[in-house]
Each structure stands twice: as C-alpha cells, then as structure tokens.
Amino acid sequence: MESKLIQFQVFYEIAMTIGNSLDLHKMLRSALVAYLRKLSCASGVIMKLTVPEPGRAGFVPELSIPRTAVDQPALKKVIDGLPNSLSPEGVDRFKDTLPLCTHPDKGTCVYIMDLQGFGLLILAKGGDDFDMTTLHSLVQLNKKLAGACVACQQKKRIELINDKLSREIDVRRRTENKLVQLAGELELRVAKRTQTLNALNEELLKKIEEIEAKEASLKESEERYRSLMQATPDPVVVYDGKGRVLFVNPAFTRVFGWRFEEISGRRLDFVPEDRMDEAVGLRRRVLNEGVCVGIESRRLTKEGNVLDVSISGATYQGPSDALPGVIVNLRDITEIKQTQDMMIQAEKMVSLGGLAAGMAHEINNPLAGILQSVQVIENRLKGDLPVNRKTAEACGVSFESMTEYMERRGIFKLSSHICKSGRQAAQIVDDMLSFSRKESSSHKLSDVNQIIDAALMMASHDYDLKKSYDFSRIKVFKFYDTALPKIPCIPNQIQQVVFNLLKNAAQAMSKDRDAKETPTIQLATFSGEGGVCIDISDNGPGMNDHVRQRLFEPFFTTKGVGEGTGLGLSVSYFIITDRHRGKMGVSSAPGKGTRFSIKLPIFRPD
After folding, report:
1. Burial environment of residue 496 by CB neighbours within 10 A (0 to 12, 13 to 18, 19 or more)
2. Is there a cis peptide before residue 54, judged by omega within 30 degrees of 0?
3. Residue 344: pLDDT above 70?
4. From start to end of 361-507, where are the E strands?
5. CA–CA separation, 12 and 264 (whole Å)
C-alpha cells in the first residue's frame, strides 16, 4: 500500500511539473528533483541526443543533480560507456536495450531509461536496487516527459522562427515603401529611355539585317571554298599560326595516307631529314612574302615513301589576335620527274648512239689488227709446227729452248692478257654499237618467268674471287604470277638485262660489310596495266638521289677502276625502252635497299 502511495505521489508531482511549464531547463530540473526525492536517489543525469554530423549521433549531458554528478565515478563510468557515434539504426538498437539496470561499482545501482525523441534519464542510488515495479510503471510518465521536452524544443524553434519572420516582415514593409517611391522615379526614367531604346532598336534591326546578310554571304563563301578544296585534285593542307593542321582535303589523304582525324590539331611530321632546313626557309619565305609558287621539294607519305612535290603556299589572317596561318598546295610530281628523267636518259642514249656508231668503226679496225697479230704471235711461238722448228734451228736455238724461255719470262701470259683485254674492248664496242643498230633477233612469244629463271641459273654460278662475292650465299625469294600471258620479246636480251641486275645487286651487297641482315634478293612478276611487270629488289646498302638520277647514264659507274665500264645498266635501259618499247625505273634510298621495276607491253608495238 505504501509503495503504491509513493508511486502515485511521484506521478502526480512530475506530471504537475511537466504540465505547468514549457521552459525546457526549468521543467527538466523540476522533473529530475522529483525523481531523485521520490525514488531516494543520490544523483541523476539527463543526457540529450545530439547529431554532430549527418548520419552520426551521440549523447551529451544536458542537466545533472548535483551539478558534479557527471564526475562521480559511478555515473562517469556509465556515461563514458555510452556509445557516442551511432548511425540512426544504431540509436534504435541501443534504445531497444532500455530500460537498463547496472552496477558500475559496489554499493551503487544505476538505472537508464529512454526519453523518446530527446535522450536518456540516468538515476543512481546507493544500497539496494530500485523497485523494478515502480520503475516500470514510470514508462508512460517518461514518455510524457520526453514529449514535453520535444514540445519545449519545438516551442523554442517556433519562437525563433516567429522572431525572424517579424524582422523580415518589417524589412519587407520598409522595402515596399521604398519600392513605391522608386517605382514613380523609374516610370519617368522608363518613359525617357523608351524613346531612346526605340530609336536604338530601329538602328539595331538594320545592323542585324546587315550582319545576317554578311553571315549568309560568308557561309556561302565558306561552302564554295570547302567545295573547291574537296574537289581540288592536288593535296591541300591548312596550318594555323603555330604550324598545327586545321584542314586537309581528300586528295591529301589519297596521296599521303593520313586522314584528317589522325593529324587534326597536330604538327605534321612528313619532311625528310635532308629537307628540314629547306622547309624552314620555305615557311619563312611564305610568311615574309605572303605567297610562293612552284617550289620543288620532297615529302614523306604515311608509309615512309618519298614523293617529289611542287609546293605553292599563301598566308591567311585568322582572328585578329592570332598569328597568320598558311595554306599549302602539294602537287605530286613524282611521275613527272620520273618521265623527265626518262626523257633525259633517252636523249643521252640517242646522243651516245650517234657517237657510238662513229667511234665503233674507228676502234674496231685497229682492235681487230691487235687481236689478229697477237694470235699470229702465239701461233708462231707456241705452235709445234715444222716451220717454227726450222726457223728456230736456223737461229741457233731449239724450239723447246725458245718455248721454255717464253714460259719463264711470262711472255705467253702477257700475250694471253693482251687477248683478254682486246676481247673486253671488243665487247665494249659491241655494247656501244647496240645503241645505234637494230638487232637481227626477232621477237617471239615467251614466258617471262622462264626467262628470269634462266638468268637466275646463270647468276647462281657467278663467283668472283677478286671482287669477293659469291651469288650462292644470297637468299633468293620468287613471287611469280603463274597466270601471266606470254609476251613478244627477244628472250636472250631480257635474260641479259635480268642477269645484269642480279649481278649488280650481288656485288652491291658483298660490299656492304656492316649489314646485319642476310643478303636477300626478291623476284616478282605480276600483271600491270597493258603489260607484264618485273620487280627485282634487294636489301643492300641502297643509293642516294645523285647516284639514282645518273644510274642509267652511259659510262657512269660507282665501281672502282677496272671493276666496271658503266655501260651495263645503260645497255639494259636501252634494251627495255628502245628494243621492247617498255619502261624501266629504280627506287632506292641509303640503307633501304634498291628496287628495279620493268614493264613490258603484252602486244608488240609497231
């Protein structure tokens, strides 16, 4: 009966305290005093739930009786043990464990209850445990206390909001009054400005019409320019003031291989190393003079091939604060240059033919006398004939002694050397005559692949100890088109040309002592436009432009004295271009090998 009386008194006193005040601090103090007195507790603390940052919550002391209660060992131990960094889910899980009765030390009992929506109520007493029946009956009262705490907090927030709204309303009222005053002044200004703006608007409309007309004209001009660039058969590239690519036309992609997407906004590195200084000077000239036309130079393709080009350029002015850009036209004149070289070569051949016709007859007569005389001398000194023996005995020597003397003194070797040199000179004369006379050999339908194989067979047995090369050490790869048609030609002459090219390639590769690759020759045949093509390439040392341009000139040679006459390639060129009305060309670069290309017509020209 006494326990129920105490419970009723606690309920009544705390309920009255809660109901008579909306002052949070006063209400919490009165409620905590009532709890402590009626429940015979020594001390108590109300902990407030705080959220220092989104998603994290903890508990901090809001009120304690006595004031130093939070420092008492028993309560401090309990407070320090409370979680201080909880997620919203963690707070709910923690509250599910309340109410909680604990004994932090001997002689002290601490009870923790939930003040829903506000925080925790912590009571501590000495001696016996709390009357659990009484404590459990306080749950509804705790809910009411928690609700009152929340209401107090909301009231405080509402008061703050009301105060803020009052200030804002006052400010707005003063602002509205000011706006009414300014509105009158503004109407006068607007009336004046409206007249001015109407006049300006009319002028602006006129300028807009002018700008639109200029933009339409500019767009039409741009479209015309773009169509012109797209249709131009020559490669065109547009650079900005810093040398970066702004535009290339389809012809540039077709000739040089780069698509616009690959080089847009970048510097185009396609100038050969030996032409870098020339390119810098050409750009400086265009920028200084504004234009240049027909400058012949060379440029690289994406695959690394070298093209002869005729360069024309002009400057253009971009934005006012930008450097002037350059528009460059690069006409591919590689075939034109090759044709010019062939024409020059043909003129040289014609000149040589006239010279050879006159020289050959003048040289052949004394040369024939030399060869005949040497043969007679050898016959009279070496031939075991009765007349030779009889003449030797008449001179007081035996024929055997005379022969032995000749052998010991090397007379026979000298005469043999004279014969060999004479025959070599006769062959040179015969080569010279081939420029000025028509061969009696007739054209006949022949298999090009078989002709090349015959020349390769001859070359495979070629060995020169003095020149230090052995054709059998060279790897040969054949890429023949077995479906080639037979062509009208003089087989032995075509064989001579192929053999000459094979021998030259072998000699060039034998001199390349620093080469790390195995000497290799590739033979290819294929159908071309209106003819049959033969490609003979090697991986030798290659040649520079100066040598390549003079390669087919008569008597021009890069070999040492006594190693070549300079007529082999010129005769081969004459055989292909004059005797067979074909084409012969060469492409080469230092360190990149050499490739000879021959094209023979399928039908014999009249």
Report:
1. middle
2. no
3. no
4. 444-446, 463-464, 469-470, 475-479, 487-489
5. 88
Burial class (CB in 10 A: 0-12, 13-18, 19+), 593: buried
**Could you give the CA distance from residue 381 to residue 402 in angstroms, rounded to a whole number?**
8
pLDDT of residue 57: 80
Residue 576 near residue 582 (C-beta atoms within 8 A): yes
- Residue 507: strand, helix, or coil: helix
Q: Rounded CA gap, 573 and 348, in Å?
A: 11
State the first-to-last Cα distance of the chain, in angstroms, to the nearest integer.
145
Nearest to 308 by CA among 295, 324, 292: 295
Q: What's the order of all strands across the beta sheet hosting 325-332?
A: 245-248, 236-239, 325-332, 306-316, 291-300
H or E element at residue 295: strand 291-300
Q: Is pLDDT at 561 greater than 50 in this prediction? A: no
Question: 563: which 2 tokens?
Answer: 């190693």
**Residue 315 CA: distances (Å) to CA of 245, 270, 312:** 14, 20, 11
Contact at 8 Å (CB) between 149 and 27?
yes
Quote the CA–CA distance of 537 and 523 in Å, as a whole number.
7
Convert the pLDDT of each residue in 143-193 to its tens digit. Answer: 666 666 666 666 666 667 777 777 888 888 888 888 888 888 888 888 888
